[in-house]
Design a protein that fits this description.
- This protein is of the alpha+beta class.
- It contains ten helices and eight strands.
- The longest helix has 32 residues, at 3-34.
């Protein structure tokens, strides 16, 4: 048996052994899922399928009898391929860990303040870890090429000005990365928070390493650099809790019976499924030359419910004025005096 035949048989056996090991791992994964392990293990099947046979080949490759001019090149290629597959597998494993952690928290619940905080932290940290893994993988792959390694070392040793230029060029990216870490730790915003930013009202839909997606009330999406939430002011309506106060302003004539309107507001709120029975206030907050401003203040469990409650109260208060006190709607008075003409 010549050297090439021996090497081909050895590599083929290693490849088959890798497939067998893969099937054993798949059976173990199915067994774990039958034990009600709350993890989507299917996402690691594909990287394992491509990883294990080349890994077995890389292990036995030094024992093969391939030509000396072919062995280093083939080994270098397989090592890079295995490193990339390990990166793919590692990212998927981190995604599984993320899903297992988030599976213990229900962000769709009404009182979801803690869940939103955990979701924000876990997702941002997940993005950071994936970014670091990819960066390290690319660095390790480049370092396996001697010429690239020598060029990199000479550049770093030759002039510090290159580092300064790179620092200036990457300051925006690094600033966003640091801002993402700050948001994950300090949490000025969380997923599903209600915010007013750039004069737009909406919900935090997605937080990444570089930008934040705000879902506007009319279903538009506002994409904002993540550093904006560290450097500039914005309103967060659900920073402390999900419940929120809603206000409705009614403008009426000076003759409007405020006491009756206050009773009507109570009646409306008591019949509304959107009211959380905490705040019920009606006050005259301003007076102009033509009308008075009446503010109805009410509370709800969350911002979407508060929006529906405000619309309901506004409609029914206007209907109440139209039916019971139409003369109290805003009006313009003109007084005409008869001019005395001498006889």
């Amino acid at each position: 048996m010549n050297d090439l035949t021996f090497s081909a048989i050895l590599i083929g056996a290693a490849f088959i052994a890798g497939l067998v090991i893969y099937q054993i791992l798949i059976l173990l994964g199915k067994w774990a899922q039958r034990k009600k392990v709350k993890a989507n293990l299917d996402i690691i099947k594909k990287p394992l399928r491509f990883l294990i046979p080349p890994l077995c080949i890389a292990i036995i490759l030094p024992f093969s009898k391939l030509p000396e001019n072919l062995l280093p090149t083939l080994g270098h290629f397989i090592n890079i391929f295995v490193l990339m597959l390990f990166t793919w597998l590692g990212i998927n494993i981190i995604s599984i860990i993320r899903d297992v952690i988030l599976g213990h928290y229900d962000i769709s619940a009404r009182d979801n303040l803690k869940a939103r905080g955990i979701y924000t932290q876990v997702r941002v940290i997940h993005h950071i870890i994936v970014f670091v893994i990819i960066l390290l993988t690319v660095s390790f792959i480049l370092m396996t090429f001697p010429k690239v390694k020598q060029v990199g070392v000479s550049l770093l040793a030759s002039a510090g000005i290159i580092g300064i230029v790179i620092g200036f060029a990457a300051q925006k990216t690094l600033g966003n990365l640091i801002a993402g870490i700050q948001i994950a730790l300090a949490q000025p915003i969380r997923l599903d928070d209600v915010v007013i930013v750039e004069n737009e009202w909406g919900w935090i839909e997605e937080i990444t390493l570089t930008y934040v997606v705000v879902r506007i009330w009319d279903l538009r999406r506002l994409v904002i650099p993540i550093s904006h939430f560290i450097e500039k002011p914005f309103q967060n309506w659900t920073r402390i809790s999900a419940d929120i106060l809603g206000s409705v302003f009614i403008y009426a004539d000076y003759t409007v019976p405020v006491k009756e309107m206050r009773s009507e507001l109570t009646r409306i709120l008591e019949k509304s499924p959107h009211w959380d029975k905490k705040v019920n206030v009606l006050q005259v907050t301003n007076a102009t030359a033509q009308t008075i401003e009446i503010r109805a203040l009410m509370s709800a469990a969350d911002s979407p419910t508060a929006w529906n409650l405000r619309c309901e109260v506004r409609e029914k208060l206007l209907e109440f004025l139209q039916k019971s006190f139409p003369e109290c709607l805003p009006r313009t008075r003109i007084e005409l005096k008869e001019k005395l003409v001498p006889k």
